[in-house]
Amino acid sequence: MILTSYGDMAHHLFLRNRSVDLKNNISTLTQELSTGKTSQLTQKLGGDLTYLSDVERSLSRLKSFQVANTEASLFASSAQENITLLHDNAAKLTSDIFAVTTSPNDDTSRQISNQARGYLTEAIRGLNGEIAGRSLFGGKDTETKPLESFDTLMTNLVTEVAGLTTATDIVQAVEDWFNDPAGFDAVMYNGSPDRMDPVKVGPNEEVTVSLLATDPAFKQTLMSLSISSLVNEPALTLDTNLKFELLRSTGIELRESTDQLVQMQSDLGFIEGRIEQTSARNAAAETSLSLVFNELVQADPYETATRLEEAQFQLESLFTVTARTSQLSLMRFLT
Length: 335
Hints:
Blueprint: H1 8-35, H2 41-44, H3 50-99, H4 106-127, E1 130-131, E2 134-135, H5 150-161, H6 167-179, H7 184-187, E3 199-202, E4 205-207, H8 216-230, H9 240-297, H10 301-326, H11 330-334
Antiparallel strand pairs: 1-2, 3-4
Helix pairs in contact: 1-10, 3-4, 3-9, 4-8, 4-9, 6-8, 6-9, 8-9
Keywords: Bacterial flagellum, Cell projection, Cilium, Flagellum
Family: Belongs to the bacterial flagellin family.
Pfam family, one: Flagellin_C
């Protein structure tokens, strides 16, 4: 029988190296057990990481869609709130105008006109609304307030209707100014004439949330409120009957405006619904892919725990052997 002996130094190095290996193994297994992810991913997947890369890329795309979805939803809901306020004010003023008796009255006309001026100011403020520093109704130019002030609007309209003595002529002059490219669009509108580009909110879904302050429904409402506001304009001298006729004609215009605003709210609501549905589909797809990803990268907790317990036992055994070996000496052997 051949006996092989090792020197003390070689034996010491062997024990030390073995101790280091076991400690590293325990550290790796502990990390796997705490994170749930395998440290030998390449080995687990047989060296082919293509499928895992595809899953990661799909998850990354879905996360980017989630961000775009959130932004589009916030943009649409904020626009919807402003349109709702505009519609409600126009509807209330319409109701108040038609509730007035057929007898002309300066006090009533002044009261309704002042109410219209307040609503017109709110309308301009609403169409200048923004969310996260981006204008809602300025098209592609999201950094500029779309509309000039109430005072700018009234100053230009007073100039247009100065000297006119009939309600028909005044209403026509205001309508012409709003419809003239050199009128409202040039004087009041500062935004872009181009709408915002569609936003991709899903793998096969995109939406366009882009409204302009120059859209017909908005201009019709602003025009109607402006006519009512002119009734109490200090720069104009209008008799009682003329004021009354202007308000009655405004009521008819406002009724048409509210119908257009309702249609706009409906269209925007449809877009909000698509965004919500797409968000739900994206969330479901992300959940499924996350399960697949976890299945690919996760470590078996039972196997990991067993291997960790085994490595700890081996390390403890090694410590015991090392301790006993370190106590060996020639004197103890001879005695």
